[in-house]
UniProtKB/TrEMBL annotation, chain A:
Pfam families: TPR_16. This is Tetratricopeptide repeat domain 8. The keyword Kinase does not apply. Signal peptide: none annotated. The keyword Glycoprotein does not apply. The lineage of its organism: Eukaryota, Metazoa, Chordata, Craniata, Vertebrata. Keywords: TPR repeat. Residues 86-142 are annotated as: Disordered.
UniProtKB/TrEMBL annotation, chain B:
It is found in: Cell projection, Cilium membrane; Cytoplasm, Cytoskeleton, Microtubule organizing center, Centrosome, Centriolar satellite; Cytoplasm, Cytoskeleton. The gene is BBS2. The keyword Manganese does not apply. This is Bardet-Biedl syndrome 2 protein homolog. Residues 688-714 form the BBS2 C-terminal helix bundle domain. InterPro entries: Bardet-Biedl_syndrome_2_prot (IPR016616), BBS2_CtH_dom (IPR055381), BBS2_GAE_dom (IPR029333), BBS2_hp_dom (IPR055380), BBS2_Mid (IPR029429), BBS2_N (IPR029430), BBS2_pf_dom (IPR055379), WD40/YVTN_repeat-like_dom_sf (IPR015943).
Length: 516, 720
């Protein structure tokens, strides 16, 4: 006669092993027999929440609506170096755009892709909507609706009996009184119910979460830091940043928790006050010396403000504390590469990142480049081959082929280079850099019309890069079309004001026009 | 008390501005300041429309490189805007933290106070202030070691230090409109002067009230001149100067004084009072006499007058701004000019005096010529004296309850007309009675209804003469109206007994209390024992005062304000410094209890409404982006649909906003009455017990402990 395990114990065991679907099934069975079993209800709620739980701290996607229509930052035009919106001039002595590629906002490309550093701030609504909306670079329409449609899976969980908890009929006041149930219920509403696509239910669920949190905080006589943090998170989602700030600060007064510091820093970043965020992090470091997440936060802010040297310093601190921190390694590596020290970069990428078990196309691509520029030619091609085989999408393949093209140019094999760039374009039609380089090659072969066409495509795809404009200017001047040369040279100057050659062209042209 | 209505004969010198700027932003009146935000260059900061503050910084134009990304014209690039997103109600710049390099900008609105470091684009602190911030001042107060940002709101004053901790809180009589820090008592520490909407200027030494000066209109601005002298401006166009509690001079104009400032414009070492008026005039008046020394004209109303070294040339300029965005700077007159100005003013003084004397003499000559002709007219018996009597008259069907001023002559002369001049009783401060020719008599009765319980001086001028005379003698007499005149000794025995009661003990003989009663009440025969009952003519309730031989006094009245006034008056008469009292006003406390529950309800509704509105606006933003998307794709039908949805959402949002506004206004009214209740509880005590009661009440409210609040209001101390 087999002794069956107590069903609740079985469910709990499934939960521990992260088999959430089975756990929730067992709980449903228990609830069918005894519908008032609080333990089973609580466990099922937690299981459902864990299936869609996203750590709020790291994710910070700003939707188009937030960027264009947001006025919560105090200073519309802050002093350069004190705002996240206007990158300062490279005060840290970092490489100029001639050496290190820049993104649309003028910030150099960092070593680590983060959700918030996608493309910079577009100037008009039209620009914002028109930027390529592929999976990598797309911006959701608004963070409250966009993110969850993308990442949530609960909407795909079909529940034959209808939703587990019917929010509109829930008596929140009753649940607020029971501390053991209210916390699980809150997490459920906050994370799970947001995935419903229906706008009106979304509307209700957010305010429900807020109501529950408000009632529970009152019940705990405003002394429970956890509820204050949850209240703050609700306000943050709703866009009421000042209220969120108030709640987080008051939670910090009760109990110093690292997470609260991180949430509060996010609020300050949305308010565009990086220096306040930095002082906050330093305060946090006083209480939690050497805490890696706080150090990473500081480093990220410095990077966003274009302080590459300070950022590197802090990343080094991070590595001292935590040798395995992938982001730090990657950022330091790319800084070294663009700072003309490919051997050190190689050390970072090969020995540290490979050892971390990072095994993807991007790493091998970087390795290939570092090897080439560090003159370790034996490793170069094999790394690129590996990269190609690991490429998960067409864009990655395109990037690898593009770099291979550069290598080919470096060894002087122009036909190989030509073929590589063509392959890049085959994989990714919008690769502006490839168009530009192809144009240069065509020019060498003497096919001016082709070159012009490529350059024009490049200019229209990537108006923030100065190279296509500069090339266009030079080409037009050679051909004798001074007017278009002048216009192109101006665009190039806009993109990269300190470029000496552009200024040379402009000077020549102005002299010509003066003579006319 | 001198009330000088001087006529301005002197032609003041015109002032030539050293620099003029035209900024493209409107400036809100009374919200202008100058601060050194980077520690070195003074910049003008002012509040403008749509909840924004602009900062004008003309100094860094040379340093800024032409960044094409930020396309701004050279002029506009001097101005940076700050989004406050709320209606700004006050603004000041100054150093909040002793070690900091730059000044902080403090912006107050009806719900929040923001201290912002402009140079680093970082908040110093952002605090919610429930009572609103109508006026703000920055500096050191009394013994508190760190500089405070002191804001005055609806009946309350709060002071914050650089970390945002509130180090100072007290209640005052009514909404605060202006604040000023100066060493009033001469003890080396600053006191806080508060101008409120109940027409009083109060002086606080930290949270203790030192003294009070009563004016007759809302005090809209206060500014420190030097020593213990300060200038003030009222809402009815009066501007004047006080030295401690004595008023030096004042002038009245039909325009409003928008802003006052103290600045030495003629380089004579003494500051003048610079006033900016609502019709665009600026004038500088001498602080001793009030005569105009300089003046200038703007094309629109003045917004603010500040001073600073704007041109960075080592000299401080007076900077005047108008609401249209015009800014002018004036330098103090140089030394050579000083001599000329002094001479001209002395000459003009002389001319004015002489011409006035000439006029007087001419008038006398004319009248004496006339009297020579008609010798009979205008002669009255030599011992004619004007008699005045005051008595209380209860309400009848014909007239409301009032005090009757009876002016009479003992003989057969008649009174042709009476002019009564008194502050605060009549509209326009004076009252003229001229009975028609048929009703001329030797006795004139004037009803007076003083609106508040304050002592008033009545200056009476009466025209006395014979029955048929055309010339009259003018008699001048001054009569003081006692403080508690509107209280009638005749008590209706059927009237209900008051439920409110206050008991306190004094160490003084009953005779002294009798003296106080005789002085402050209108008692026709005087009384000998301190045991009286009155009927309040204003409200109709009863007031009873009684004293035991042990020194314990009991006041019975339903009006807690009256009880407070009586105690304060008695305490100042008997020179009592500290007085503890026990009180119970059941009807009033019940109202207060109801108000407190209402406050809680409003708070929770407010939270819900805010969240709902925020969510709504997120939807609107999403919808807007989607509509734009549709338009860019050329999908007109979807675009139209989205815009229609947007229209509906917008309308809903506006309705929600209206509801929220109403809720907020109701909440503010409740909070104000709570603050007033604390104030009234404080008025029932004197000295240290008063501050203790106020502080204890505030703690009780902060901790949401309603029962403790009532206990404190009754017993005077918190439960131990």
């Amino acid at each position: 006669m087999a002794v069956t395990m107590d069903p609740l114990f079985l469910a709990w065991s499934y939960f521990r092993r992260r088999k959430f679907q089975q756990c929730s099934d067992v709980c449903s069975k228990i609830l069918q027999d005894s519908p008032y079993d609080q333990a089973a209800w609580s466990l099922k709620t937690r299981a459902l929440t864990e299936t869609v739980y996203i750590d709020e701290v790291d994710v910070d996607q700003e939707g188009i609506a937030e960027i264009m229509l947001d006025e919560s930052a105090i200073a519309q035009v802050a002093r350069p170096g004190t705002s996240l919106r206007i990158p300062g001039t490279s005060q840290g002595g970092g490489p100029s755009p001639a050496v290190r590629p820049v993104t649309q906002s003028g910030r150099p490309i960092t070593g680590f892709v983060r959700p918030s550093t996608q493309s910079g701030r577009p100037g008009t609504m039209e620009q914002a909507i028109r930027t390529p909306r592929t999976a990598h670079t797309a911006r959701p329409v608004s963070s409250s609706s966009g993110r969850f449609v993308r990442l949530g899976t609960a909407s795909m969980l079909t529940n034959p009996d209808g939703p587990f908890i019917n929010l509109s009929r829930l008596n929140l006041a009753k649940y607020a009184q029971k501390p053991n149930l209210s916390k699980t219920l809150f997490e459920y509403i906050f994370h799970h119910e947001n995935d419903i696509k229906n706008v009106s239910t979304q509307f209700i669920s957010k305010t429900h979460a807020l109501d529950l949190a408000a009632m529970a905080t009152e019940h705990a006589q405003f002394k429970d830091w956890w509820w204050k943090v949850q209240l703050g998170k609700c306000y943050y989602r709703l866009g009421l940043y000042r209220e969120a700030e108030k709640q987080f600060r008051s939670a910090l007064n009760h109990q110093e928790v690292v997470d609260t510091y991180l949430y509060l820093a996010k609020v300050y970043q949305r308010l565009d006050q990086p220096i306040t965020a930095l002082t906050l992090f330093k305060q946090g470091l006083d209480h939690f010396p050497g805490e890696v997440t706080l150090l990473t936060g500081i480093a990220r802010i410095h990077e966003e403000m274009n302080n590459v040297t300070s950022a590197t310093e802090y990343y080094k601190d991070v590595l001292k504390q935590d040798n395995t921190h992938v982001e730090a390694i990657a950022c330091i590596g790319s800084n070294h590469f663009y700072g003309d020290q490919p051997e050190i970069a190689l050390r970072f990428y090969r020995s540290r990142l490979l050892q971390m078990g990072v095994y993807n196309c991007q790493l091998y691509n970087n390795l290939g480049l570092c090897c080439f520029y560090a003159q370790q030619y034996d490793m170069t091609l094999s790394s690129f081959e590996r990269a190609l085989s690991l490429a998960a999408s067409d864009e990655e393949t395109a990037d690898v082929w593009y770099n291979l093209g550069h290598v080919a140019v470096g060894i002087g094999d122009l036909t190989l280079a030509y073929q590589c760039f063509k392959l890049t374009l085959a994989n990714n039609n919008d690769h502006a850099e490839a168009y530009n380089n192809l144009a240069v090659l065509e020019l060498r072969r003497g096919r001016i019309e082709q070159a012009k066409a490529f350059l024009q495509t490049a200019c229209s795809i990537a108006p923030h890069m100065y190279e296509p404009h500069f090339n266009m200017a030079t080409l037009s001047e050679k051909v004798g079309d001074l007017q278009s040369s002048y216009m192109a040279a101006q665009k190039s100057e806009d993109a990269f004001p300190e470029h000496v050659d552009t200024q040379q062209i402009l000077k020549n042209l102005r002299q010509h026009f003066a003579v006319l | 008390m001198s009330h000088a209505f001087t006529v301005q004969f002197v032609r003041a010198a015109m002032l030539v501005p050293i620099f003029t700027l035209k900024l493209n932003h409107k400036i809100n009146p009374r919200m202008v300041t100058v601060g050194k935000f980077d520690g070195v260059h003074p910049c003008l900061a002012a509040a403008t429309q749509a909840g924004k503050v602009f900062i004008h910084n003309p100094h860094t134009r040379a340093q800024r490189q032409a960044a094409h990304r930020l396309s701004q014209s050279a002029h506009d690039s001097d101005i940076s805007l700050l989004n406050i997103n709320q209606a700004v109600s006050c603004l000041v710049a100054g150093s909040l933290e002793p070690g900091q390099v730059g000044d902080a900008l403090l912006v107050g609105s009806q719900t929040n106070l923001l201290a912002y470091d402009v140079h680093n684009n970082a908040d110093v602190f952002y605090k919610e202030v429930a009572d609103g911030a109508n006026a703000i001042v920055l500096g050191k107060l009394g013994d508190i070691p760190s500089p405070l940002a002191i804001i005055g709101g609806n009946c309350a004053l709060q002071g914050f230090d650089h970390e945002g901790n509130d180090q100072f809180w007290t209640v005052t009589g009514d909404n605060v409109r202006s604040l000023m820090l100066c060493d009033f008592t001469g003890d080396g520490k600053n006191e806080l002067l508060v101008g409120s909407e109940d027409f009083d200027i109060r002086v606080f030494k930290e949270d203790e009230l030192v003294c009070e000066m009563a004016e007759n209109e809302t005090v809209t601005s206060l500014c420190h001149m030097h020593g213990s002298r300060f200038g003030y401006a009222l809402a009815n166009g009066t501007v004047g100067v006080y030295d401690r509690t004595a008023r030096y001079w004042r002038i009245k104009s039909k325009n409003h004084a928008m802003s006052i400032h103290a600045f030495d414009l003629n380089a004579d070492g003494v500051v003048e009072l610079i006033t900016g008026w609502s019709n665009g005039k600026i004038d500088a008046r001498s602080d001793r006499t009030g005569e105009v020394i300089f003046k200038d004209n703007f094309s629109s109303s003045i917004a603010g007058v500040v001073e600073g070294d704007y041109r960075m040339d080592g000299q401080v300029q007076l900077i005047c701004t108008s609401v249209d965005g015009e800014v002018r700077g004036y330098l103090p007159a140089s030394k050579e000019m000083k001599g000329n100005l002094m001479d001209t003013s002395v000459e003009q003084d002389l001319i004015r005096e002489l011409s006035q004397r000439r006029q007087n003499l001419l008038l006398e000559l004319k009248t004496s010529r006339l009297t020579e002709g008609d010798a009979q007219m205008g002669v009255i018996p030599a011992n004619t004296q004007l008699q005045t009597a005051l008595c209380v008259k209860a309400a009848t069907e014909a007239q409301k309850a009032h005090i009757e001023l009876n002016i009479s002559t003992p003989n057969e002369t008649i009174i042709r007309a009476v002019l009564i001049f008194a502050e605060g009783i009549f509209e326009g401060e004076s009252h003229v009675v001229h009975p028609s020719v048929q009703n001329l008599s030797g006795c004139v009765r004037v009803p007076i209804i003083p609106p508040k319980d304050i002592p008033v001086d009545l200056h009476i001028k009466a025209f006395v003469g014979g029955r048929n005379s055309t010339q009259f003698h003018v008699f001048e007499i001054t009569r003081q109206l006692p403080r508690f005149s509107m209280y009638d000794l005749h008590v209706d025995p059927a009237a209900p007994q008051p439920t409110g009661i206050v008991c306190f003990g004094i160490n003084d003989r009953p005779q002294r209390v009798v003296m106080w009663l005789n002085q402050n009440f209108l008692l026709p025969e005087g009384i000998d024992a301190p045991d009286v009952k009155f009927t309040c003519l204003r409200g109709g309730g009863l007031l009873s005062i009684s004293m035991q031989p042990s020194g314990e006094i009991t006041l019975k009245t339903d009006d807690i304000d009256l009880a407070g006034d009586l105690i304060q008056s008695l305490a100042s008469f008997l020179a009592i410094e500290d007085l503890q009292a026990e009180a119970d006003f059941p009807a009033y406390f019940e109202e207060l209890r109801v108000t407190l529950t209402e406050v809680d309800e409003f708070h929770s509704v407010h939270q819900k409404l805010t969240a709902a509105m925020a969510d709504h606006s997120n939807h609107i933003r999403t919808m807007l982006v989607q509509a734009e998307d549709a338009r860019l794709m050329g999908d007109m039908r979807t675009m139209k649909k989205r815009y229609m949805e947007l229209y509906d959402l917008n309308r809903d949002l506006i309705n929600e906003y209206k509801i929220r506004c109403n809720n907020h206004n109701a909440l503010i009214a409740c909070l104000k009455s709570v603050n007033q209740a604390i104030q009234r509880a404080g008025q029932l005590r004197v000295g240290k017990p008063k501050s203790q009661v106020i502080a204890a009440c505030r703690n009780a409210i902060k901790n949401n402990n309603v029962n403790a609040l009532f206990k404190i209001m009754r017993a005077g101390t918190a439960s131990s």
